[in-house]
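Take a sample.
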Amino acid sequence: QVQLVESGGGLVQAGGSLRLSCAASGSTFSINYMGWYRQAPGKQRELVAKISSADRTNYADSVKGRFTISRDNAKNTVSLQMNSLKPEDTAVYYCNAQSGLVRITDYWGQGTQVTVSS
């Protein structure tokens, strides 16, 4: 089992920045990918960015060039630096960890609200 605890988030004006952090505990040795997803009201949860244990990254097209994901394997943390925020970035952001190679297990944090005002 893996437990994820998020921090950061809040209210910011358009064009501003926020940083989200997530700390993993438990069976962290089994984690391959860590990442961030978000869910806006009335919409499906979507991938924002993810990073492998070898620091390979994937970003949603909508955040490329604005968001940066980073990972500290020694501390079992993943962070998301969000710059040039837009109102459409408003959502609940969830930390995600994936373990396993053949049978993948997803773990989720409790979610943190990010609100961008225009």
